[in-house]
Amino acid sequence: MLTSRTPRGLDRLVNFTDAAVAIAITLLVLPLVDLVTDGKEHPLRTLLEDERGTFLAFAISFVVIASFWTGHHRVFEHLEDYSSAMLWANFLWLASIVFIPFTTQLLADQGTDTAPVNALYIGTMIVTTGSLALIEVLAVRDPSLQRAEVRGQLDARGALVAIALLLVALVLSVVAPVVGLYWLFLLFLSGPLTRLFRSRRPTEGAGVAQDASEEPGRQD
């Protein structure tokens, strides 16, 4: 258990995380390299047609990992310190990130039974999103971990909405596997739903404040 932490400790945590993500995103290209290192000639058009699944899986996972890193970067830009719980939540986040190249290869090699592979891929995304949401919640609950100039700006509701949408996509990928990973387009609803929840909270708060202000002047 950590008893003391320094700014250098946070830097090491972020640097270690960035290095692991860089390795994971590099591993995505190895299956593509293997396609042209077998000593045979591969016309580009034939290669693209025959291995379109491999190229598509690479493109999807590259965007997925890049998006996850962007979210991680956004959260840690708000921090000046971290807790033990954050440290282990970050390791869980990393475990899911480095697992993505494996699930990517499964996507490229999947046969007719696509539901389990799609479910595993989306399930991995749920772990990644959930662990980052946990880090964000921990930071919100302990504002002293946040940088003074941006303190109070973190909001975990966006991550929680994304988790809910991923759970829906997971169920639908099993129930209707013919759609496959296209269920992930549900994530485009994350932004509008998050803005909806954020806009409702101030209104509700204003209503409570108004009731409170009227209370002293109430006449029986």
Automatic annotation (TrEMBL):
Locations listed in the record: Membrane
UniProt GO cellular component terms: membrane
InterPro entries: TMEM175-like
Top-level lineage group: Bacteria
Entry membrane topology: Multi-pass membrane protein
GO molecular function: potassium channel activity; proton channel activity
Name of the protein in its database record: DUF1211 domain-containing protein
Source organism (scientific name): Oerskovia enterophila
